[in-house]
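Following up on my earlier thread - several people asked me to post the actual chain instead of describing it. Fair enough. Here it is, all 882 residues.
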Amino acid sequence: MWKKRKGNLVFAYDTAKVFMAATQPLVSVYSLFQTSRIGLRAEEVERRRSVFGRNEVEHEKKKNPFSTFIKAFINPFIGVLTVLVVVSFILDVLTAEPGEQDWTAIIIISVMVVSSSILKFRQEWKAGVSSEALLRMVTNTCYVRRAGNHDEEIDISELVPGDIVMIAAGDMIPADMRIIEAKDLFVSQTSLTGESNPIEKHPHALKGMTADKSIAELDNICFLGSNVVSGSATGIVFATGNDTYMGSIAKGITGHRAATAFDKGISRVSFLLIRFMLVMIPFVFLVNGFTKGDWLEAFIFAVSVAVGLTPEMLPMIVTANLSKGAVAMSRKKTIVKDLNAIQNFGAMDILCTDKTGTLTCDQIVLEKYINADGSDDDDKRILRHAYFNSFFQTGLKNLMDKAILSHVRDLSLEYLKDDYRKVDEIPFDFTRRRMSVVVEDKAGKRQIITKGAVEEMLAICSHAEYKGAVHPLTPELREKALEISGRMNRQGMRVLAVAHKSYLSKDRDFSVADESGMVLIGYLAFLDPPKPSAASAIRQLHEHGIEVKILSGDNDAVVQTIARQVGIDTSCAVSGPELEHMDASELRKAVLRTKVFARLTPDQKTLIISLLQEQNHTVGFLGDGINDAAALRQSDIGISVDSAVDIAKESADIILLEKDLMVLEDGVLEGRRTFGNITKYIKMTASSNFGNMFSVMAASAFLPFLPMLPIHLLIQNLLYDISQTAIPFDRMDADYLRRPRKWDASDLSRFMIFIGPISSVFDIATYLVMWYVFGCDSSAHQSLFQSGWFVEGLLSQTLIVHMIRTRRIPFVQSRASWKVSTMTLLIVTVGILIPFTPLGGAIGLEPLPLAYFPWLLGILLSYCVLTQIVKNWYVRRFVKWL
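Reply from S.P.:
Thanks for posting it. Predicted structure:
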């Protein structure tokens, strides 16, 4: 049976083993899986783990440091630089005359290639390590039975083939399992098959099944990644990790992540700049070749210009920003499962959230229990029935079940269960919104006890107890019931109805059909007050451009009461049944204007989110229950909490370690800060390179010599790249953080066209100053000319960081972080000093006269002033900067 060995790289799914497991009768299923009813012994667990490894699907293969380092060198910009190294080696070393060999250009370009790639490798490796560390903070668990121990809760990664596992509503299936016991087990296999309807699973061996059938048709097999909608079961694990069905699928798609709008935007920027290079290289080469006559030098200069247009730091800057953002968010108790989700976090403009635990304290207490006529339950009969219902059920116990059990424990009434035994149960589901247990007392009296939402309970009741007698449930009594529950709802309490039916003729196999003709006996009222911080958090989210909508399955009156208490507008509230009667046009309008939705099914939550997305909104969804899994997947950014059910955590992009909107607000701001710093670099690089294109074209066309030697361009570009490494550590203006931020490729093109040429104006002004003021009008004075433009070009490129990083007046209204300011000052100092050093002399630069620096200061100040003027006009015209 166990053919897999650790280290085997073949991941084809073993369907023969699955069909063997499905057709095996229960009497021999334990021997087939080499296990027992009491589970595996500890030493056998360790032996199998050494053979099969941990129960982990290879979603993404752990990165190898060597391969990651090699991949850091693989991007189009590094390719351009590498070609230039080869060309320089051929021209400056191999074909040069003895004694005239020049390694300078090769060394500088190689430093650029290696430093850029090492930085990228370092950031990607740090990001990977940080991501793995953060994900280890979020665990999925299951209950397993092992010999010598009570049933225990363990991390699903610790499972091995042969383990006996118990599952219930809300659980994610932890491995591929053969069901051996089940009670009304319904499993959703949507994530594996696309089938939206839950499938009932049972423990019986399948007869007549052949291997040409789909494994999805095996009704006694559950697959890793599917989730339990209702019911409970026990199963034997027969496949773990990459041997599972999900593992075989995941192996085929590992590493292939769908590109987000942000990814596509980065790619567009990259290839736009590459297209610039493809145009610039032949243009500069031909113009300089014809005007200067030295075709070899013209070629080297053209390729050097291409290097100047190359944003080789782009991959590193993006990775550094995302990883820094993820780590910063983790400090604020927000775990990012996927780094690329950060940009959606910053773009979110609508947050849909459940009510319980997010807006409320998540500490539900049983406030009161009363009879059906509204009188007090002095003999605690209603409480007793509710206790039996909550205690004997085997499914997922919700907060109200726990509140009932806690209340009974506080009253020391737990002994009541000793006189009863459980016969059967009908598990909860989110369509019926109720659940039932069948119990029998020592005298043999059998009864079904049902509790659930009031409206759904009234639909199955034919009678009601009123003033000590049982009466038919007339319209008047129905109205009385709704009036009693409504009054408690308006006080902010959640109300469940309790009903029963006695003297049952059946003794087993109870089903939903048996929930009929019941007697309404009373109500349970629970209080879950709003969190003190909820109103403030919603107000702050609104101030930051995020509209909060409540999507709840709870009663209308309760949801609206809580909404009002936390400051959400309830003037337009819609219930699930009302949505069902709307046409497509009405639905689209309703989801936009409505802030409060109640009595929703899981499908309706998903529908609301998809309709908002269709209307160009970036939608986040915060949920923690099994009924939230589909909505979490549908949303642009799924947000769950560490205490959520397994399937909710698996479906989410972001995990909050605290179920609090205040934590969420911190995460949103960090997401926007990360997005803003990436956008800064992209716009700085794109506009600066676009301006440099015009400067070089003008110089090439009109100057009798090269405005800068290739080596000057390379050093200038290297220093500028070093200055940009501080960008991920910059701060963002408060007004930028107030609004959601989406990637807009059209704005980038416009930004380049309006801002880029400004630098060309002052580059040309520098040409004129050097030509007319300092007499650099012939090849004999080209060294001084090149020194002047080298310094001005580097300083203007470096200072533009401070002009573009904010829509305000830099240095006055908005200051960069100390790391950015320090790096700017360092590079400016180095750039000014180079012509005065031996290095400057070695590369053809010469000391600049002191008279040059007032001109330089005037040019740079004018550059900043004009840029600020254009910036102010641009913001007024397009209402946007970064």
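The first helix runs from residue 15 to 23. That should answer part of your original question.
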